[in-house]
Amino acid sequence: MTCRLPASYLTLNVAVATVCITSPDTDGADTLNKGNPMNDAGFSGHVHRVALLSAALVTATVTLSATGQTAELSSPWHEAHMSQVRLIAARRGDNGQDIVAGIQVALQPGWKTYWRNPGDAGGVPPEFDWSGSGNVANTEVLYPAPKRFRDPAGETIGYKGNVVMPVLVRPADPDQDVELRVKFNFGICADICVPVEQELTVNVPRQAQVGLPSLLQKALDLIPRSEASAKVGDPKLVQHEVHLSGDQPRILLDVDFGSAAHEGDVFAEASDDFYLPMPARMQEGSTTASRFEIDLREADDVSKLKGKTIRLTLVGAEGQSEATFVVK
Q1: How many domains are contained in the chain?
Q2: PLAT domain spans which residues (predicted)?
Q3: Is the pLDDT of residue 185 over 70?
Q4: Which end of the chain is less crowded, N or C, counting CB atoms within 10 A of the terminal residue's CB?
Q5: Alpha-carbon distance 64 to 81, whole Å?
């Protein structure tokens, strides 16, 4: 996707490594307290840093839940501008052959970071370089359901407070240890926008305890689900209309958000990096659906939209889902 930079974007990078001992924030609010970088209620009870696994794991720590039933491998927290970042990982599945990692970003109040599509006002979507990893065949970064933010510069899409981006990791050899190393570039914004670069590392031994800690499980639960894996309460695309001709080309979307429909939102992307403006709420499309409009007058060349796949991320009060259709 083309990066659209705000005019206030500054060239500033801060990368100072640190290790913190943390306890959860019971209300899960969008705050970041000094000495409490996690600020997440995902663990039951206090979370403590314990001994390093071995000399080979000098860059990773192990954190245990109060119940002692799940283990989490983690890099140290890394300080960045108005934020802290770390890489976490755990094994799951039969015999622990699958790995789920997560990049956790904890932001100071008033600051935000971006989704894979930063929105109309511009921003920097996150970038991930896993090429320095060892025994890794493939990685897939997943994005939790984002939020829409409005400010004088326009509308953006992203996250505030504390966010974990899950990463599905497939080892090249599932019977060997895995070294995860990522160069993580992302942007954060308040009154100014700042690019951040961090390199994070965590080792995942083959004999690591199997089971996802609640922090990673909760992050996975926030990933928009396909129609095939939808749960009760997930939003549904009821119908869509595409109008490419005339003086008002547009796409109309009717979405059923269930209860609290006024809290629902829609984000749209097109294949081949075709630029689409953000959907705007119009009116109730039917007795059960909310109507959104994508005004194509601000899009790229509308004549080139035919044949492209539209990917919708639907975010409601009770769940989140994805829907796709091809423009005909």
Answers
A1: 2
A2: 290-328
A3: yes
A4: C
A5: 28
